[in-house]
Design brief:
The complex is a heterodimer. By secondary structure, chain A is of the alpha/beta class. Chain A has 13 helices and eleven strands. In chain A, helix 9 crosses helix 10. Chain B contains no helices and ten strands. Classes of the chains: A alpha/beta, B mainly beta. At the A-B interface, helix 4 and strand 5 of A face strand 6, strand 7, strand 8, strand 9 and strand 10 of B. The structure holds zinc ion. Zinc ion binds next to loops of chain B. Chain B: InterPro entries: ChsH2_C, ChsH2_Znr, NA-bd_OB-fold, Thioester_dehydratase-like.
């Protein structure tokens, strides 16, 4: 029987601009705070998993150890696009489930404030001035803008409109209203990169990035880090009453990649792997989507949030539009989604995101979310997608009293 | 007449432009890039198949933000050509939301890319409203 695993300590830095701090500073800040929150030290940690796409090193975790404690433990440096943080956490959880150690830590960090458009390749050099074929399409010139788009806003815009095509009702205004919700939610989050409420008009009339996504409907590039300390159930039972009271149960931890689907190499299919991860997670946890008190899902764009209502089975198949229009996903609704402000407003420091969304859930389950506390929250779900693709889903439960 | 070459391997120029997919001989999955094996079933034998030139707009976005050197706005789309999904831009249409509808009928056409220092013209493709 595999060990049950708990979040013992967790933290995130403020998301936004940190001019005077580099990736190591931010990662060290989050790690130290997570250890303090857990009531343990680096000497207690048996495995470290880290991710940073902007960290500039394939041994980033060791650079971090050199600032917080070189104890000789195994380090896993992981990368999985926007699912990097969830992947790091998953590695620490697997190590505990495998019985290799009792305590593990996962850290994700990014410096992205001021970064421009992500995902679109730059222009290739002209070389000697004659055409030559490159890459797996044998292209003689860059394909961005010539054969559709690889830019993230453009890809996720198509993913949202594809849903609208299948089921109807997904207008520009509807997507803008999803962003309106998340920006409104962030006004209660002191760690969010942006915490200003936008009117629907402001959102719809802002700079268009890729129709139907305007700038406030896109995830906010920013700096930030998050870290989590996980512990085995058997070790937790020997810890203090305070540690046991605040520990949050990892009822499901799932990572999937995208299985082959017709057309998935033409436009990424973010639906199948999310639905599969959610199905496995609900089964592992023995919990259904109707029992969730809150959800943090990967709203890298407003168009993405809509499709994930359906993929995570928060609504019946094809009914995401009506589900949103019912008010269900506002913080006072039936299934509050992204009460942190989500990636659109809280911000999206890529490798930190998959741990920060778990921090948000834990904060509510522990009853420590202050002004934005979802009253009586007992069960939450955190979801991330890294395009390519990787999907992480974690279901978390409050400790029994 | 100057020599013309296609922008990508899967575009075949000639009288009428055509897109040619690699179809898995075992499971009929279709691909447009150089293959090592089939992502669907793992088989390694493929046959060339011509994709229908007409299709419908499966989804789109009007992209207004792009790396330097890429003219914007442009209409990025996925077109369903008789059951095969193809990535391409919609051309010969003003890039405004009211001009593009999901399900609208389009057909394959060629788009000039430019000439290199030897005078060879590269030719790309797009889909235009029928
Ligand atoms: Zn096959």
């Amino acid at each position: 029987m595999a060990q049950d695993v708990w979040i013992l300590g967790i933290s995130m830095t403020r998301f936004g601009k940190h001019r005077d701090k580099d990736n190591i500073d931010l990662a060290a800040e989050a790690a130290a705070a997570a250890l303090a929150d857990a009531g343990v030290t680096m000497r207690d940690v048996g495995v470290l998993a880290t991710g940073s796409l902007t960290g500039g090193s394939s041994s980033f975790g060791q650079l971090l150890q050199k600032q917080i404690g070189q104890t000789g433990i195994p380090v896993f440096n992981v990368a999985n696009a926007c699912a990097t943080g969830a992947t790091a956490l998953r590695v620490a959880i697997m190590a505990i489930r495998a019985g290799e150690t009792d305590i593990g830590m996962a850290v994700g960090v990014e410096k992205l404030a001021g970064a421009g458009l992500l995902g679109a390749p730059g222009q290739a050099p002209a070389g000697d001035g004659t055409w030559s074929r490159r890459g797996r399409f044998g292209a003689v010139a860059p394909l961005e803008g010539r054969v559709g788009t690889d830019s993230m806003p453009g890809v996720f815009a198509q993913i949202g409109l594809e849903y609208g095509h299948r089921y109807g009702g997904a207008s520009f205004e509807l997507f803008a209203r999803i962003a309106e919700k998340n920006h409104a939610h962030s006004t209660l989050n002191p760690l969010a990169a942006y915490s200003r409420r936008f009117t629907l008009d402001e959102i719809m009339n802002d700079v268009m990035i890729a129709y139907p996504n305007t700038r406030p409907m896109c995830s906010a590039n920013c700096d930030g880090a998050a870290a989590a300390v996980v512990v085995s159930g058997s070790r937790l039972r020997r810890m203090s009453p305070e540690q046991r009271r605040r520990a949050v149960k990892v009822s499901a931890s799932v990572l999937t990649s995208d299985p082959w689907q017709d057309g998935c190499q033409v436009l990424p299919d973010v639906n199948t792997l999310t639905r599969s991860a959610a199905t496995q997670a609900y089964e592992q946890a023995g919990i259904g989507p109707q029992e969730l008190d809150l959800v943090e899902l990967h709203d890298c764009f407003a168009t993405a949030e809509l499709v994930h209502y359906d993929n995570l089975m928060l609504c019946a198949p094809g009914e995401a539009v009506g589900f949103f229009e019912s008010g269900a996903t506002w913080r006072d609704g039936k299934t509050p989604v992204n009460v942190s402000g989500g990636l659109e407003s809280k911000g999206h420091p890529i490798a930190a995101t998959g741990i920060a969304n778990i921090w948000e859930i834990c904060h509510h389950l522990r009853g420590e979310a202050g002004d934005r506390q979802i009253a009586g929250a007992r069960v939450g779900l955190a979801h991330v997608i890294g395009l390519g693709s990787a999907c992480g889903v974690h279901v978390l439960e409050k400790a029994a009293a | 007449m100057a020599e013309r070459i296609p922008l990508v391997d899967y575009l075949v120029l000639g009288g009428e432009p055509q897109l040619v997919a690699q179809e898995c001989e075992q499971c009929s999955a279709r691909f447009f890039d150089r293959r090592n094996a089939c992502a669907s079933c793992g088989a390694a034998a493929f046959r060339a198949v011509t994709v229908p030139r007409e299709g419908t707009v499966h989804t789109f976005s009007i992209v207004s933000m792009a790396p330097p050197g890429v003219p914007v706005p442009f209409v990025a789309a996925v077109v369903d050509c008789g059951g095969t999904r193809v990535r391409g831009c919609l051309v010969n249409v003003e890039p405004r939301p009211e001009n593009v509808t999901l399900g609208m009928k389009v057909r394959l056409t060629t788009v000039p890319v430019g000439a290199d220092s030897a005078g060879v013209e590269a030719v790309g493709y797009g889909f235009e409203p029928v």
